[in-house]
Amino acid sequence: MQKWTLPQKHFAHFYVLGVAWTTLLLAATWMYAFKMTPLTSDEFHLSKVWRAVFLLVLMEIQVLRRLMESFYVFKYSPSARMNILGYLTGLFFYTAAPLSLCVNIAPEVVTFAGNSRTSSAPEFDLLSSLSPLMKLGWCQLIGAAVFLWGWLHQRRCHAILGSLRESPSQAREYIIPHGDWFEIVSSPHYLAEIVLYAGLLIASGGTDVTIWLLFGFVVGNLTLAAGETHRWYLRKFENYPANRNAIFPFAY
Predict the structure, then answer these.
(1) I need a labelling partner for 176 at 20 to 30 A (CA). Which of 113, 128, 217, 237 fits?
(2) Which has the closest alpha carbon to 180: 159, 196, 205, 204?
(3) Range from 24-33, 152-161, 185-194 carrying the lowest mean pLDDT
(4) CA 45 → CA 16, 26, 158, 200, 207, distances in Å?
(5) Using alpha carbons only, what angle is made at residue 19 by residues 18 and 21, rounded to the nearest 5 degrees?
(6) What pTM does this model have?
(7) CB-CB contact of 182 with 249 (8 Å)
(8) According to the model, what pLDDT value does residue 46 have?
């Protein structure tokens, strides 16, 4: 029913929330790491606190780009709607996802932040606070590379989708997208999202259950959504490329 739906342009609310929440968590965690767990060893990957900081930096890069895209790349069709349950799920996801990256140290960070409010403001040296992030372990380097690979392809695929409705006359039209990973799957932006969350999982070292749960939710949710999108394309376009799978090349 129409009354249980919202305009798709409300997707921007997810990323406003995501940026605000991730920035808050990143600032608090980074300050805690700088003051309470100075890194004296070159073994960056042994420090779960600095690992959480690194993961939140990657998440910040992701949500900032998504926020910019929601305003400057996507041109939502005036008739495009989303279910209110999907809207609430999106708000929950962008609250839970950043938190899952630092949940193991969240109690200590909250205690530290509370004590900081009642005492003098801690001094913060930007250069010194960045130096631990230069001591990356192999998991972080490989994870960051996988993350950026997915991040770049999602950016390209979103630009392709945005370009399909550059003029007002195209606002209500549906066009088969081409280019980048669109040549092999119907929802390459979803595939890219799975890739970049796989990068986060690798960068975490794979030891945190919460990050595995986050990754599993992303894979399950986007696989279902991609299947629906693929079936819609097949119904909508008689000449839809037969070589495209829904989301995983040569598999599904």
Answers:
(1) 217
(2) 159
(3) 24-33
(4) 31, 18, 33, 14, 12
(5) 65
(6) 0.88
(7) no
(8) 45
Among 10-24, 111-125, 176-190, the range scoring the smallest mean pLDDT is 111-125
Which has the closest alpha carbon to 72: 172, 154, 159?
159
From residue 130, give the alpha-carbon distance in Å to each of 51, 57, 126, 127, 208.
Answer: 13, 11, 6, 5, 24
Contact between 190 and 251 under an 8 Å Cβ cutoff? The reply is no
**Token reading at 100:** 């899952």
The length of the chain in residues reads 252
- Let me know: does 146 contact 194? Beta carbons within 8 Å: no
Taking CA atoms, 25 is separated from 22, 60, 88, in Å, by 5, 10, 21
